[in-house]
């Protein structure tokens, strides 16, 4: 028996235990979840504030990008991670592709054990059955409608009746507004800090570094909707001034620094050289002092939060 216990322990992943704690609103706290996760051995805990109905989880997306082989993602309950069975399976598929693992403390899901994998396979079979039943019901409904001489779909939209088209457009706008509001707290403060001094390309690049993936076009459209609903200042849509080459470097260095604050100035300089970025004076070799000047400018313009202690520590590196 002792040997079986030792064998099971040896099969456990030897990587980090990373906790993920999520609450739906800013008024709620993740403290209770953090206590359970730390009791389970998590030394790193990622916090997220976001609706359970939305898949837009920047902190989770960044965690999944950075998790390493052998690491284990741990949650208190499945509903803290996924909004549906299909979403859960997508997340676990991403983890499996990176040779990482998943465990839920209050559910029988642990991809490091045979029992946990069996439970996961059952969930996958349920999701597949659900998709098959929906498809079967849809096909049966279309067949029944055709047998009665009816065409599938909304007849008002098919016949392009103005009142039905207006109703559909209103529903689409309402759904879009709900999606924008569900994620605005994650990106709107950065937009307010950077606009209109910086272009939409710059802002989208900074947001991607922070785990929120959006194109400049989608970002501008979302801000335009918020302005139209009087939820954001119209000044955000003003045309940004012509950008000097050095301004682009400030944004680039800020993005590198924000994505990994532990990088030293010399390491950032090496990244810039690998990207074949020219220095402000047109040289090909970057010095730590040049990087520090750009980071200081980024901090003064609000692209980087903090009092500068990180930069001073990085200089020593």
Question: Which features characterize this protein?
Answer:
Rossmann fold, 57% helix, four-stranded parallel β-sheet, 3 domains, 7% strand, 317 residues, alpha/beta, 13 helices, disordered C terminus, globular
Structure notes:
This protein is α/β, with parallel strands linked by helices and 317 residues long. It folds into three domains: 2-115, Rossmann fold (3-Layer(aba) Sandwich); 155-237, no CATH class; 245-316. The chain contains 13 helices and four strands. It has helices at residues 2-11, 31-39, 58-66, 85-97, 114-147, 155-158, 162-194, 200-209, 216-228, 245-259, 265-274, 288-300, 309-316; strands at residues 17-23, 44-49, 72-75, 101-104. Strands 2-1-3-4 form a four-stranded parallel β-sheet, with helices on both faces. Strand 1 (17-23), helix 2 (31-39) and strand 2 form a beta-alpha-beta unit. It starts with a helix and ends with a helix. Belongs to the site-specific recombinase resolvase family. This is Recombinase family protein. It holds the Pfam family Resolvase. Residues 16-149 form the Resolvase/invertase-type recombinase catalytic domain. InterPro entries: Recombinase_CS, Resolv_N, Resolvase-like_N_sf, SSR_resolvase.
């Amino acid at each position: 028996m002792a040997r079986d216990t030792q064998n099971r322990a040896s099969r456990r992943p030897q990587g980090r235990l990373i906790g993920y704690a999520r609450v739906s609103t800013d008024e709620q706290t993740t403290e209770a979840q953090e206590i359970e996760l730390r009791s389970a051995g998590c030394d790193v805990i990622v916090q997220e504030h976001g609706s359970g109905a939305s898949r837009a989880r920047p902190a989770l997306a960044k965690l999944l990008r950075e998790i390493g082989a052998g690491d284990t993602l741990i949650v208190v309950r499945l509903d803290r991670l996924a909004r549906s069975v299909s979403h859960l399976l997508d997340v676990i598929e991403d983890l499996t592709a990176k040779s990482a693992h998943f465990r839920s403390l209050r559910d029988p899901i642990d991809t490091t054990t045979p029992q946990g994998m069996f439970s996961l396979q059952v969930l996958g079979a349920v999701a597949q059955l659900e998709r098959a039943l929906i498809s079967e019901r849809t096909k049966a409904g279309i067949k029944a409608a055709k047998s009665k001489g009816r065409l599938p779909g909304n007849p008002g939209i098919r016949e392009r009746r103005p009142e039905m088209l207006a109703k559909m457009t209103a529903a689409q706008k309402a759904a879009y507004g709900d999606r924008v509001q569900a994620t605005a707290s994650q990106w709107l403060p950065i937009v307010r800090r950077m606009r209109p001094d910086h272009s939409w390309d710059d802002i989208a690049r900074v947001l991607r570094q922070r785990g929120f993936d959006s194109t400049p076009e989608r970002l501008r459209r979302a801000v335009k909707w918020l302005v139209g609903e009087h939820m954001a200042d119209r000044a955000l849509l003003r045309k940004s001034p012509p950008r000097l080459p050095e301004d682009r470097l400030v944004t680039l260095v800020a993005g590198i620094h924000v994505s990994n604050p532990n990088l030293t100035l010399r390491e950032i300089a090496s990244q810039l050289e690998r990207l074949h970025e020219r220095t402000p004076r047109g040289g090909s070799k970057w010095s730590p002092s040049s990087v520090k000047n750009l980071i200081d400018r980024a901090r003064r313009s609000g692209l980087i939060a903090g009092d500068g202690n990180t930069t001073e520590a990085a200089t020593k590196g």
